[in-house]
Design goal:
- By secondary structure, the protein is mainly α.
- It is 77% helix and 0% strand.
């Protein structure tokens, strides 16, 4: 038989042509989706932190100044931090809406120096309030444990009468620095003196714990937003170029 040349059949597989523009567009879409998730997450976190702060402020009118005059001073800073948290919440909502409807608006804001400075200032106020709340909480826990000898969880449940008496004395000492034992006895014997009840003390202690939770949320939010990193960079630049 004569040699026959078999026809070469084309493969049924379709080769997809690589399109760099299409690939770049898809990558940008994925980046925008990730940014949208991040913006919505930051907004939810900031708004939750602000809600905790306003709850603490609203209920602090009936709380006991467990750390004396320091509590009053810290209250103003905590209020400023709560306002800052509210601004962070509003900013997060705006950025989340922008990222969903018009992402270029966030790009524009991120390139504005005034916006960067404003967000940094708000973050620093929030961090200052969080640090102050953490300091007061630690001080409160030390006072409670020193006069009860029990764990924090046990103190949140109830207090014995001797523990209540010792804590009332510590509250007086905290609000009147340098008070002597004789003066302390004199205060307790006054007709208008009314010791704080166990229920009142534990409720104030719970409120301080809630405030500490809000402080930790604020700190975490500032870390995720990059405020601490930006602050560290600014401090590093300042130390590298000291003023003459």
């Amino acid at each position: 038989m004569p040699d026959q040349i078999m026809p070469i059949r084309k493969s049924s597989l379709l080769l997809t042509k690589y399109d760099p523009a299409l690939h770049l567009k898809g990558s940008q879409g994925n980046i925008r989706e990730s940014k949208l998730v991040g913006e919505l997450g930051n907004a939810a976190w900031s708004c939750g932190t602000a809600m905790v702060g306003w709850f603490v402020i609203a209920t602090s009118t009936v709380s006991i100044p467990l750390t004396g005059g320091l509590s009053t001073a810290i209250t103003y800073l905590a209020s400023a931090a709560t306002i800052a948290g509210t601004l962070q919440c509003m900013n997060g909502v705006v950025r989340g809406t922008n990222e969903f409807l018009a992402p270029e608006r966030n790009d524009y804001l991120d390139n504005q120096e005034w916006y960067e400075n404003a967000t940094m200032a708000v973050d620093l106020v929030s961090l200052a309030g969080a640090s102050a709340s953490a300091f007061v909480t630690i001080k409160t826990i030390k006072i409670m444990q020193a006069n009860s000898g029990r764990s924090t969880l046990d103190m949140l449940k109830s207090l014995s009468r001797p523990e209540q008496r010792r804590l009332n004395n510590e509250i007086i000492r905290a609000n009147i620095p340098g008070v002597s034992n004789n003066m302390l006895k004199s205060i307790r014997k006054r007709p208008g003196y009314k010791p704080y009840s166990t229920k009142h003390i534990t409720a104030s202690f719970r409120l301080q714990i809630v405030d500490a939770v809000g402080a930790s949320m604020s700190f975490t939010g500032s870390v995720s937003s990059g405020a601490l990193r930006s602050l560290a960079v600014a401090v590093g630049i300042y130390e590298e170029f000291p003023s003459e």
